[in-house]
Amino acid sequence: MQKLAEALGLEGRDLSEFEAAARGRSSRYSQAKPTRHNLPRILTPLVGREREVVAVADLLAREDVRLLTVTGPGGVGKNRLAIEVAERSRETFFDGIAFVPLSSVGDPSVVPSALAGALGIVEIAGHPLVETLKDHLRDRRTLVVLDNFEHLLDAASLVSELLGACPGLTVLATSRAPLRLTVEHQFPLPPLPVTGHTPTSADAPDRPAAVELFCQRARSVAPAFELTAANAATISEICGRLDGLPLAIELAATRIKLFTPRALLDRLDRRLQILAGGARDLPERQRTLRDAIAWSYNLLDADTQTLFRRLSVFSGGCTLEAAEAVCGSETLELTETILERLSSLVDNSLLGSRTETQAGREDEEPRFVMLETIREYASERLESRGEDEDIQRAHALFYLSLAEATQPETLARTQQEWWWTRLEEEHDNLRTALRWTLQNREVEIGTRFGPTLWRFWATRHPGEGRRYLEAVLALERTDNRRRIGGVEAGLPGRRRAYLLLVSGMLAARNGDYDQASAQYEESLALYRSVDYRKGTHGPLRELGVIAYLQGDYERAVLLNEQALAVAREFGSEFGSSLAVCNLADALRARGDLERSRNLLDESLASLRRGEQRMLVITNALVNTLNRLGSIQCALGEGVRAAESYGESLDLIWRSVGKAFEAVACLEGMARVAAIQDKPELAARLLCASATLRDEMGAPLSPIVQADHAFAANAAREALGEEVFQTAWSAGHAAPLDESFSDALAAF
Q: Edge-to-edge strands of the sheet including 318-319?
């Protein structure tokens, strides 16, 4: 009797309890020799999942968790995690653990037989197998691991039925989609971490898990492989490009036999081609990364497959609004339909979803994101169906409309930060749309992007915007010569003149004054050739800026006086304020401080009387206050200068993009700090502004260089070199908002 109890997995139990159990069951089913568990033996260590293993094991030990589904995309390591968790849970489930591999089971009706086989149960003729399973599991503390359940979701009702009848049963499922049962708890398994400290020593314990996995698998095929100072950054980038997916990392690591890390990284633009040839003992669906993704894709219905393919056009994810606008068609035209199918893709681990609260908004916007490895597969399918051209055009037009909606003339102050954040979040999509316009020679669309995005570029990405505008202008010239031999401009003169103007402004932000001057001159000539006097204000003003930066102050005064006259002639408040600011700089450099201050006071009073809700007016106020603060410093009026800079900084913090405008303000505040015997603050603010200039590639003008040197020398003399360098380092490390707070609190 005792031997039979042990064979049934009941050793250690009270014998009378066993005898009662045996009497109650012996007539209902026959039992093969069971074992305590049938878990597969894994010959390689599990890397980087200790936290997840502990979390899942703790959940399984809870009485209220009867069904736990580990979800995630193919290749993320659900199977390996489940086996490790089950191994560690043997004491919790003392009546046995059954591992049920389901990847080769093609019919949901076969799941009971697969479960019976894993439990060692032999089906009895004439007795329903499900009832036999219930009888076997009813009084046992058992864990059943259902591995790869995503293609058998119609069998979820069996799981529910068994859980209802067997109070000691717990089910751990791995699936790319949830079972959608009320009793279900989900555990989404993320990819391995790819960021963090990347040490070069082989035994370092704190390298990112993805890098550690790569190194272990690489050494298994190339024992001489080592992580070194020379290849550490490349290995980290490889793991990042593979989204931290363990399967992808393992497949890539095997290529170390053929490629150096750098050569391997260079080939990852086409990940799916190189990530093949997995081990023969892997399931067929996991021998290449393409197979792993195709397994999930083939489980989708036709319309959801269509949406999946179309979503590949997005870079860095998309909002629901964007998905509806770009991916909608006669078969996917209803909001409810697209939302439902997006949800299905999330459930099947082909799409991620995150919710973020955007600045200036109380509502939360869902954002749908594809791993890049999955996106490449979807893009392949899109191209193979010949659907890519129409979807790419729809994508470009959608983001053009988004860019055009951010025109500062239409934005209230409360909208500014939200739109700035939205453009930054959509920057990858904007880049994709811009690249498409160039590759497909879409001059009309491309030239519409420039006027809408140049302020965003100028504030945050001047070099990138400049390169795009110059490419569009060159493309327009080439297309025009091909069409009509260059007899007349392909673009209307006014639009081309404006593109030249903003391209020149971005070149100037990068310090390329010769290029900027050439484009301003061409812009000015075009405006005059089409008799559009109002447009000449911009190139005149910006030519004046170049003259000032190059030390030709007389010419700078003359050009800005001309620009101011044009702006006033056409009633442009913003244009007038810009010309006044530039004129004030030139006058100050020439030594005419009083006239400079009078012009700024007059402009500031006019701006305060006018409409101040719009972004352009806010920018005008910031620029005017910064210039006024510099004049007040030069006149020895430190208190007034602090007030001007403080108001400017407050406007920047609340309303305006916090990059280029902040530089002048922080530099001015540093000068005030030096004047008012706050040398440590002066050093910190100078470094914060210098860091911003480095990030933007924005050089110092001659006058600002002198102001900067004055403040730095005063702070260094007051503090001594060692303390000065400490304060400077603190300014470099401080976040921008912290520098703002320090400046505002000090005055």
A: 318-319, 364-369, 352-357
